[in-house]
Design brief:
CATH class of the largest domain: Mainly Alpha
Order of helices and strands: HHHEEEEEHHHHEEH
CATH topology of the largest domain: Neurolysin, domain 3
Radius of gyration: 22 Å
Structural class: alpha+beta
Shape: globular
Number of strands: 7
Oligomer: single chain
Largest sheet: 3 strands, mixed
Bound molecules: zinc ion
Amino acid sequence: MVEPWDYRYLNSSANRQLESKIPAQSLLGANERFHRDLGADLGKLAVVFDLDPRPDKSPLAYTDFLKRGRVVGSRWQSPVARVVGTYPTGGLYSLNELVHESGHAVHVSAIHTRPAYMDWPDTLFTEAFADVSSWSVYERAWQQRYLGAEVPAATSLRSLFGDVMLDVSWALFELRMLRNPGADPMRSGPTSPAVTCASSRTRKCRGGPCACSSRQSRVHGELRPLVPCSRGDTRAHGRNRSGRSMRAIRGGTDG
Ligand SMILES: [Zn+2]
C-alpha cells in the first residue's frame, strides 16, 4: 500500500517509467554521448570514471582533481578529473547524478591558471555549472534523444523538484547546525524539548509558537543562534564527531 505521504515513491514515478531504458551499463554511454554533443569529449579530456563498487568506497558521489594542471617545460598539461560514484542499478536519478558529476569533470578539466589559483571551490556557481547540464535528463526531448523514450513533463518535473526540495531542506538543516553546533541534530526544531530563551532564562518554550516576548526568541531552532538548550548536559547534544559535513552524512547525494 502506498500512503499519500510516501514522498520518495510519489516523486519517483518518472524513474519507474524509464528505468527499463536506463540499465546500469547504459549510464556511461548516454553520459558520454550527451557531453560529446555539447562539445566536451570526456575521453579526450581523459576523465577517469571510478564507478565500480569496492569495500569502504565513499557512498557519496563526487568529482575532484586526479592531477592538477601545470606547465611542464613550455607546454601546458591539462588537469585530469576523476568522477567517483557507484551505480549498481542505473535509473534516472543515477543518470542525473553521473551527468552532474561529469559536468564538474568538464569544469575541472577546463581550469587553466597559475598554480596559486589551481583549485576548485565548492560554490553555488560550481554546482550550477553541473546542474545546467544534468537537469537536462528531465527534459522530454533529451529523454527521447538519449533514452529512446520519454515521460510527461509534469512527471519529470515532480521527480526533479522532489529532489531539489530535499536539497533545500538539508541546506536549511545545515545552516541551523552551523549557527548552533551544540544543538542536537536529531532534536532541533519546533519539536525540540524545552529550550530557554536567550533573553529570558526563566522562560521556557516547549515546541510550537514561543510564548516569549523577545523577537529574537520567537522562532527557536529556526536559524536563531541565541537560543541555548535548557538541558545542562551539552555532552548529550549530537555533535558531528566524525568531522564529516552533514552533506556527507546524508549519503546518496553528490558532492
Ligand atoms: Zn555537485
